[in-house]
Every structure is written in structure tokens, then in C-alpha cells.
Amino acid sequence: MPEIVEPIEYESVISKFGYFIHLGDDCSLYDCKSAVDDVLKPPPSWHFQFQESETINLTHSNDGSVVVQGESNFIIEVGRPKSIVKKGKRLTSLKPTNIAKGIQIGEPKLEGVCRLLTTYFGD
User: Fold this and answer.
1) What is the CA radius of gyration of the chain?
2) Angle, vertex CA 78, rays to CA 83 and CA 54, nearest 5
3) Is the pLDDT of residue 97 over 70?
4) Measured between alpha carbons, how far is 34 from 74 in angstroms, rounded to an integer?
5) What percent of the chain has pLDDT over 90?
6) Which helix (H) or strand (E) holds 14?
7) According to the lineage, what is the superkingdom (predicted)?
8) DSSP string covering 23-77, please?
9) What is the pLDDT of residues 18-64, one digit of tens each?
10) Do residues 1 and 13 make contact, with C-beta atoms less than 8 angstroms apart?
11) How far is CA 61 from CA 18, 68, 74, 121, in A?
């Protein structure tokens, strides 16, 4: 198709070759970011430099927790695996909340989308 404008056109093309999942209808949406913020330490306070790490190893320890080790080299392991979970929290306490369908879009966002559509498609 040279040009697809309506969302239903995407759905028909994708449905010919695979399956189409409607977010909020066929699968639930969860707010994982706020759940992780409550349980995990922020990356700047981790025991290794996240951005400079070449490899990040996740290991399941004997007591049921997960420890993380970041290495700046692929060959040598010099760091120690430690937990990145906040004190008194466990990874099993991650409980993301369900995001309700039909969140309203703010007025500035609608105006920006209208300007964009007018620029490319005219009035």
C-alpha cells in the first residue's frame, strides 16, 4: 500500500500475516515503572557504574533473591554480585497496578497532533 492513513488499515494488513493484539482489550496494561521505583534502588546508587558496564550478570541466589554484577570487561570478573533491592523489600513485592483504558489526552498534546496532521495532510 503506498499510504496508510487509518489505524484500521494497519490492522487489516497485520491480520493477513499474523495476529493483532488490542492493548487494554486483549491484554492488560500495567504501570511497571512506579512498581520498580518502590522496590529497586535508583541506578546511580547501585554498587557498580551501570552506564560503563559491558556486561550485567543477574544471578538467582540461594535465599531466593536476585543479585546483580556489572563488569566493565567481557573477560575478567572483578566485581562482586550484590542486591539492588531497597532495604526491607523483595523482588516478590513488585505489584504493578493495572492502567485503566481510556486515559484522556491533554489539550497541548491534541493541539500538537492537529498541527502535525495539518502540516502533512492539509485541512
Assistant:
1) 22
2) 80
3) yes
4) 32
5) 11
6) helix 7-17
7) Eukaryota
8) BTTTB--EEHHHHHHHHBPPGGGSSS-STT-SEEEEEE-TTS-EEEEEES-SS--
9) 988 888 888 888 988 888 888 888 888 888 888 888 888 888 877 76
10) yes
11) 39, 10, 22, 57
Cell readout for 1 is 500500500
Residue 84 burial (C-beta neighbours within 10 Å; 0-12, 13-18, 19+): buried
User: What is the rounded CA–CA span in Å between residue 40 and residue 47?
Assistant: 13
Higher-confidence residue: 66 or 31?
31
Rounded Cα distance between 83 and 40, Å, is 9
Residue 97 DSSP SS3:
strand
71: phi then psi, degrees, rounded to nearest 5: -125, 140
Q: Is 111 helix (H, G, I), strand (E, B) or coil?
A: helix
